Amino acid sequence: MNPEIIVKSPGRINLIGEHIDYNGGHVLPAAIDKKVTILFRKNPTTSCHVKSENGGAFSFDIDKPLQISKTHWENYVLGVVDGVLKARPGQVSGFECDISSDLPIGAGISSSAALECGLAKGLNALFDLNLDDLQLIEISRMAEHNFVGTKCGVMDQFAVTMGKRKKLLLLNCESLEYKLIDADFSPYKIVLLNTNVSHNLATSEYNTRREECEKGLSIIQKEHPQYTFLADVPENIIVSYKNKLPQKIYQRVLYVSRENARTIKAAELIQQGDIQGFGALMFQAHEGLSKNYEVSCLELDFLVDLCKDIPQVLGSRMMGGGFGGCTINLVNESFVNKFMELTSKAYKSTFNIDLTPILVATSNGVEIIKVV
Ligand code: GLA
After folding, report:
1. Does the active-site annotation cover 156?
2. Domains 5-183+363-370 and 188-360 equal at CATH topology level
3. How far is the CA of 21 from the centre of ligand 1 (A)?
4. H helix intervals, 153-199
């Protein structure tokens, strides 16, 4: 294709603050240097033709109501186009769209948000729609809710759209205010270990966690109506509900309160240069995700446990929604190669699965190149 517009849309990492976004708390993500590339060209009809390097091709007509597809990845596209059409009726025509990617899928680094936000921002530029970043983030998030079926929070779409090179975003998911923090961990590097497993519980359990948190909050609100979001409820109040909440719900809400506090603390430590202190919080976060929130799995736990005995690794935890995907690790740069070798060997001999280590750097959010 001879594109009019080329979009580079990054994946994201999250340093700490997992399953906190939909509870109105703080998260600490960054956009990364692994990206989805999308080429766009308008056509004068109402037909859209979308081709993906590894998922095949499909077409649809923007004059007919868009329906949820049985082919999973197509729903990211359909959901975003549906949102854009509703936000700007009559301003979009047919288009050609080619998608390629160096972002692994299902690895918890948000290939889905990269695709959604890249499409939203690309269509906005292609048709001069004048939608601002917050509107594009919301269209992308709603595509995930309404077409894909995951009732996700705002973290991924926000990080993918607003990320900055060499920066982390300390994002308040209640107000959407954010602060850019230097992503300086030297002499430590961020290494992801992709388990290459993606247990199919991910979507259903994700939505269940969200419901459990809502239920917990609604019970707490009866006596403490001043709290609108679960992440704001302090640990001492949560603890007073130990015998008043069903046990699983108690575990979930305790995790959320602690993880939000950990994230605020982590941002302080990183800004003070206390990377060791931050690393310790990563291990604590994993413990909470695994034991209380129960979104980890054997493979992730194995990798984090392995790191506890490696002095050159300051912190390690599962990242993203869970049930597979990646761990995120802070590794001394002189040890990175050895670390990749050692963890790959141990993982292969335990699970008979190849591990994929990924050294990541932070990068800018979605970028648009207009071809003249
Ligand atoms: C997924 C969701 C995010 C967030 C994370 C967990 O990536 O899309 O909104 O909830 O899981 O932190």
Report:
1. yes
2. no
3. 7
4. 155-162
The class level of CATH for 5-183+363-370 reads alpha beta
Handedness of CA 202, 207, 213, 216 (dihedral sign): negative
From 152, 171, 207, mutation site for ligand 1 pocket: most ligand atoms within 8 A of C-beta: 152
Whether the per-residue pLDDT at 202 is higher than 80: the answer is: no
Decide: pTM greater than 0.85: yes
Rounded to the nearest angstrom, the distance between the alpha carbon of 155 and the centre of ligand 1 is 6
Mean pLDDT of 207-225: 97
What whole-number distance in Å separates Cα of residue 231 and Cα of residue 174? 9
Residues facing 59 on adjacent strands:
49
What distance in Å separates the CA atoms of residue 150 and residue 87, rounded to the nearest whole number? 21
Instruction: HSE, CB side, 13 Å, CA atoms: give it for residue 214.
Output: 8
One-letter amino acid of 108: G
Q: Quick: pLDDT tens for 54-66.
A: 879 999 999 999 9
Q: Give the homologous superfamily in CATH for domain 188-360.
A: GHMP kinase, C-terminal domain (3.30.70.890)
Q: pLDDT of 255-308, one tens digit each?
A: 999 999 999 999 999 999 999 999 999 999 999 999 999 999 999 999 999 999
Dump strand ranges (E) for 20-151: 26-27, 29-42, 47-52, 56-61, 95-101
Q: Is residue 96 very low, low, confident or very high in pLDDT (cuts 50, 70, 90)?
A: very high
Return the C-alpha torsion angle 185, 284, 226, 321, nearest 10. Answer: 80
Rounded Cα distance, 266 and 279, in Å: 9
Delimit the domains of the chain by residue range.
5-183+363-370, 188-360
Answer yes or no: are the C-beta atoms of 76 and 119 closer than 8 Å: yes
